[in-house]
Amino acid sequence: MHSAHPGLPEFDYVKPASLAEASAFLKAHVGEARPFMGGTDTFVRMRDGFWKEKYLVDVKHLEGMQDITYDPAAGLVIGAAVNMNRVVASPLVKEHYPLLAEAAHSVASYQLRTRATIVGNICNASPAGDTTGACIAFDARLKVHGVDGFRFEPLQTFFKGPGKTVLQPGDIVVSIHFPPAPRGAQGKYIKLGRNAIGDLSIVGITVLGYPDASSSSGYRFKIALASVAPTPFVPAPAEALLAEKTITPALLEEAAQAAMDACKPIDDVRSSAVYRKAMVRNLTHKALVDVWGRLSAAAR
Amino acid sequence: MAVVGQSVLRIDALSKVKGEALYPGDINLPDQAWMKILFAGRVHAVIRSIDTAAAEALPGVLAVLTAKDVPVNEYGLIMPDQPVLCGPGSAKPYADHVRFWADQVAVVVAESEAIAAEACKLIKVDYEDLPAVFDPREAMAENAVLLHPDRGSNVFCHYRVRHGDVEEAFKKADIIIEGDYQTPAQEHAFLQPEAGISYIDEEDRVTVVVAGQWTHEDQEQIAHALHLPLEKVRVIYPAIGGAFGGREDMSVQIVLALAAWRLAQRGSKRPVKIIWSREESMIGHHKRHPFFIRTRWGATREGKVIAAEVELIEDGGAYAYTSTKVLGNATVLAVGAYEIPNVKVDAYSVYTNSIPNGAFRGFGGPQAIFGAEMQMNRLAEALGMDPVEIRMRNILQEGSTLIVGTPLPKGVSMPEVVKRTALQAGWIQTEKGWQAPEPSAPSQTHLKRGIGFGCGFKNVGFSFGAPEQCTAKIELRGKAEIEEAILYHSAAEVGQGVHTVMSQFAAEALGIPVEKVHLVASDTARTENSGSVSASRMTFMSGNSIIGAAEAALEKWRNEERPAVATYQYRPPRTTPMDPQTGKSEPNFAYGYVAQAAEVEVDTETGEVKLLNVICADDVGQAVNPQQVQAQIEGAIVQAAGYTLMENFVQKEGRVLTSTLSTYLIPTILDIPEKVDSIIVEDPDPIGPYGARGMGEMPYLPLAPTIAAAVHAATGVWFSHFPLTAETVLDGLGRIEK
Lengths: 300, 738
Ligand SMILES: Cc1cc2nc3c(=O)[nH]c(=O)nc-3n(C[C@H](O)[C@H](O)[C@H](O)COP(=O)(O)OP(=O)(O)OC[C@H]3O[C@@H](n4cnc5c(N)ncnc54)[C@H](O)[C@@H]3O)c2cc1C
Hints:
The complex is a heterodimer of chains A (300) and B (738). With 300 residues, chain A is an alpha+beta fold.
């Protein structure tokens, strides 16, 4: 039946002094405790009665959580608690990873982005997450602190289903690490929603392209699709086509078609599956044309 | 005029901006208890039994009320076809039937909202499900399951118009245009979900503080259900967060009264409070009626429409609400703002197991006008004629006869609003007639632009012989000069600004500054019956009542009475009901007239439609407060743009799938047109206060077909249903592979 008048249920606010303490607490309270960043998913889920945690564990203040750093050799590190407005405004991000800034900017409104984080977006593991695709395209990894200490998790194998990830009890993502962006990379994120601001994606299309001497086409393209599968989706056949064959306008169309053929989206109140598929083709094509235009201009 | 015609500051602006104005949910009283309503969660069933023992036993529960606790278990604005609480044990036949998902079954009163909600879950209801019907066309069938078995048919209203000789006229037509259209449901999405508080006042009245549109009607419905004399019930409206027709029918009013009253009988005089969540609001109150429209128009080669046949099927949902009145309006407007000599209309209201449908800004007008304007635009295309030119050849004008066989009241400005809109939009008048402008150029080839035109008109005030009046009381205080004028009036300030307009009327009529007018509003114990804020009527009706009261009070003032107090009841010219066979009637005493042009850009790769700009000329007779008039025009256009392009109320077998504002989207600031050009036309209504006409609904009326025409101009495709979501449009363009 329909929910009672919604309000946040009661919970305890826990603020551990160290990552070790935080991981230990989370492990000791499996199913009852949850870490949070901006809380923009967490508080909504709790208010609506879907999540019933007894403890919310605030880890935003812990080491490295609030920093953005860049090193030409090692790449970019964004602390888990860095909000999206900071990502959008960061000169480092704008210069080296403009696709990431573009994707972050597509998330809801300025107000929401003062709270929402990229790591929260990823850990929430919604297939509709708008920033996940850019992170996948840049081959980002998550630095995770668990009861056994630190480790890295690549995004390719991170997602297990809607709301499900490989994270284990006690795990806390501390930061997200981007290797140096490929030289000459160009990117595009296209979000299609039912309104101009705030709706979740009907589809979200991430395309990143860059020159690559090791592939037959001389280029490599990374494509990631939001809202077309239970997890963020990479249409491998489309990527393969663009690596293997000489890039022509016809190939861009063929690759877009391959992306469409590779995904099996569902019907929901936002869109039908057939419309989603058509949009994967049309908007992947649009993004490819845009990215290819800039790549070939740079090559001239 | 000194005050009327000025954009004086809204009298409620400061308190609302500062957060001081109290809306129903903001009001708390000492010792208040909380109420929660148990909804059925079934679309069609008989309730065999209700076991409330476990709920009553829960600590903190004060009362659990069901059908057997409601003295007269029925209500309804135009016919009492809805149980207050569904279930066995009341005298009303079939009150044990549940007919839609959010039918109310029980109320729990408890120490807290959480306890009340918990107790609702402990109520055991034994249902026997019945077959259900959701499509009104199926519900009309002979063998369809009956929602109200005592009525013998799901069709609960049928209007007929027989005007001229349609058969003969079609024979003479050079061209015939047939159309099959559908219009969707719409949610009001007012800011403030339903809420209220009830208590027994110092004079032993069952008192309900709530948001509504007509205090005295709420009072009557509560008194009827509780079987109390009218004066034992009191209804007060505090600040109201929007209405748009969505508060015309009961939501929490009767059950709040019931709860406070039953508690008091059990010796506990505690206030009872309820606040609906957004979700409860979305599933709990009625929506705009979906219509199915089948129509056929015949015209001469010169573009004169000589015959029209229209079938209107209105989905009433589970209960009547205001369906029959909505249908009446739609019937009068069935061929739009045109004088057509031969017309036949058959219009039906039909029960289904969907959420009830009822009043919503435009009240049947947007639906009927969609059908009519689609026909006119398609006719223009078929004849290769300009859409403004063809309108001018058929348009209603001074002395025109309506399809119900009587002339329009004087002051018909239809040609004027069409002309003003057309000129502003760039149409030119040539020797060959009106000629449309070219749309502006899009930035890319997959973007297509088009301009559309539409127009309409609608009644101001109650129609078809419904009793119509409005009463004001004015008290003048002071010695030599009037120091203060107290205006007593029931008109509901739902956000539209009527209290400011009323103060302006009083100041103007009394010849005093508006600051000297003090308003006592919307309390059945202190203010007289004003009728509802609906039908674009309150500026017109309150104005006339206030002018009358002011004149009478001034008369007493001149006779040295101190304070000088006068009450005045305004009654407009009489209207008459439709003849059952022919529809012949004098349906209304006043009208408002409107025309619009819109430019859109269609993305042919995604189907997204962007509304670039809208031009709207609306004849308001006299703009009492021009800034508020402009706000009404802009607000109506934004709401109608949502209706046309975005708002998609989805029900699956009677269950609402879009019960939140994240699934049911309304336009955001970035979705609304860059520019709305409001042309305020002031062609006085001969019987309006200082010439004012009603206008709250008019700018809403023609936008959907105007946009549909613009989309057609851009893409070559006519859309016969909406909302024109990106997916619907791309599908219509034949660009989605199935
Ligand atoms: C009005 C509104 C509009 C929105 N619009 C969009 C939109 O346009 N696009 C979009 O993609 N999303 C949107 N969202 C969803 C949400 O804002 C994003 O997913 C956001 O990025 C979540 O970040 P957060 O920091 O607020 O996450 P939180 O709510 O703090 O966390 C989300 C999840 O991740 C887990 N988590 C968070 N941090 C960690 C960590 N360090 N280690 C391990 N687990 C962690 C939490 O336990 C929780 O399960 C919207 C939400 C709202 C309320």
